[in-house]
Each structure stands twice: as C-alpha cells, then as structure tokens.
Specification:
With 173 residues, the protein is of the alpha+beta class. It has two domains: 73 residues, no CATH class; 84 residues, 3-Layer(aba) Sandwich (Glutaredoxin), CATH 3.40.30. It has seven helices and seven strands. The strands form two sheets. The protein has a four-stranded mixed beta sheet, with helices on both faces. It has a three-stranded antiparallel beta sheet with strand order 2-1-3. The longest helix is centred in the middle third of the chain and has 27 residues. It is globular and about 35 Å long. It starts with a strand and ends with a helix.
C-alpha cells in the first residue's frame, strides 16, 4: 500500500511515491503536504493528481483535510480566471497562434468587425492547464473555444455555422 503524488505542469510532472506499509497516515499526509507546498510555493504545478487508499483518506485529520482542500483551490482559480475573462468581454476566443481553425474564426470575426478578446494558449505559461480547465467547463478540448455573451458557442465549425445562419449576430445583441 502506498501514496502516489504527482504535481503536473503541462507535459512536465513531479512524482513522489511513499510506501505506506510502515508509515502512519500522519507521515503520509506530511509527505503529501510537502509536495503540495512545493508545488504552490514555486507555482510550478497547475494540477495535483493524488492517489491514496480510501482508508487513509478517512483517517485524515480535519486540519489536514482542510489544508489539502486549500492546495486543491489552485485548479478552481483557473476556472475563476476563465469565468472572469468570459464575463469581461462580449466575445472571447481561446486560441493557439499557429492553429488554422483559430485563424479562420478570428478572420471571420475581423471580417464582421466584431471586437473580441483572443487568449493565445500556446503563448501562456499555464496554457495547457487553461485548456484542461476549458475542457472541464465546456466539454470541448479543441481550439478555438469561442464564448459569446458569456455563453459557450463552440469551435470554428460552430462559429462559422452561427455566422451563416445569423445566430451569431443575434447572440451579439
């Protein structure tokens, strides 16, 4: 039995395995806290994936559980960041600068003189984590990921279809 801890940032991960046979739950939780603290202090981790036997999770003290919840809040801050960005602009396009479908979507918006906020995920340090957060929020992994009036529209095909049908103009009113 053991505790597997992994802090992830993009394609880089740090992993720690702690054997639990001879360790008490308190010692395992201290190891977990060290990895979490390292990840949050260095801001090198955008996600923590934790695998721990259920019996050890139930043995955790309320204080340790509260601390673990605090460390997990980094993921929710990315969700809040996405929600704030979407709320701050009428049209938001999560994009990658090299993506031809993103270029088509932004070209369409430019041709219609629609002001938009483009978030270039490939130019951000936390772009991979933001894309994962978008997947959690919208169910869409691909870019472009388009929001109109605070609501998720979809990708390039959805945006092109909405423009042709007139639905895009209706959403902008």
């Amino acid at each position: 039995m053991g505790c597997y801890l992994r802090a992830v940032r993009g394609s880089v991960s740090r992993t720690a395995w702690v054997e639990a046979e001879a360790l008490s739950p308190d010692i395992m939780l201290r190891s977990f806290h060290r990895v979490c603290l390292l990840a949050t202090m260095t801001r090198s981790a955008t996600a923590l994936r934790i695998g721990m036997p259920p019996t050890l999770l139930h043995a955790a003290s309320p204080v340790a559980t509260q601390r673990a919840a605090t460390y997990a809040s980094a993921a929710s801050s990315l969700e809040e960041q996405v929600k704030e960005t979407v709320a701050a602009s009428k049209v938001v396009v999560y994009s990658k600068s090299w993506c031809p479908f993103c270029q088509k979507t932004k070209g369409l918006l430019d041709s219609m003189d629609i002001l938009y906020t483009a978030v270039e995920l490939d130019e951000l340090d936390n772009g991979d984590a933001l894309q994962t957060t978008l997947l959690d929020l919208t169910g869409q992994r691909t870019v472009p990921n388009v929001f109109i009036g605070g609501k998720h529209l979809g990708g390039n095909d959805d945006t092109q279809r909405a423009a042709k049908s007139g639905a895009l103009q209706e959403l902008l009113k």
